[in-house]
């Protein structure tokens, strides 16, 4: 069916303005949107590439960090093993000193313990025969014997008591 308005007849409300037949503004807006979309797509592609490069960099850094952590763990194990060996050697030294001081006369050992550092006295006395250790303690200066006893008992070291007068 043909439209009656198309055969040269003018219909009511019909205007003969070609600019109204096609909406050029919509075409321009559509073109603008397509260009904006293409620009954003390009920008997203660039950001995606940048993120991929950043991810590769992070992965490489993580691999280096894992290698360093592994080396650190290995070195820590070596140091721990060396410390354990050193402690064992220290225990052997203490055992040797125990034998030496137990073989001495208590009076002679006490005179040495009176001037010896407590870091040596306490470990040695801890491993000594209690009977021999008590004889040495009995021969020591009272303040030193008191401090050694406190350290052997695990009580923190305090400064010696100062006595004034003759009350004891």
Short summary:
The protein has helices at 18-21, 24-103, 106-113, 118-127, 130-139, 142-153.
Spell out the blueprint of helices and strands.
Elements: H1 18-21, H2 24-103, H3 106-113, H4 118-127, H5 130-139, H6 142-153
Helix pairs in contact: 2-4, 3-5
Description:
It is a single chain. With 168 residues, this protein is an all-alpha fold. The protein is built from six helices and no strands. α2 crosses α4 and α3 packs across α5. It is rod-shaped, with a radius of gyration of 48 Å. The mean pLDDT is 85.
Sheet/helix structural class: mainly alpha
As a whole number of angstroms, the C-alpha radius of gyration is: 48 Å
What level of helicity do the residues show? Answer: over 70%
Through-space gap between termini: 137 Å
Shape: rod-shaped
Q: Enumerate how many helices there are, as a single number.
A: 6
Task: Give the topology string: H per helix, E per strand.
Answer: HHHHHH
Features:
168 residues; mainly alpha; single chain
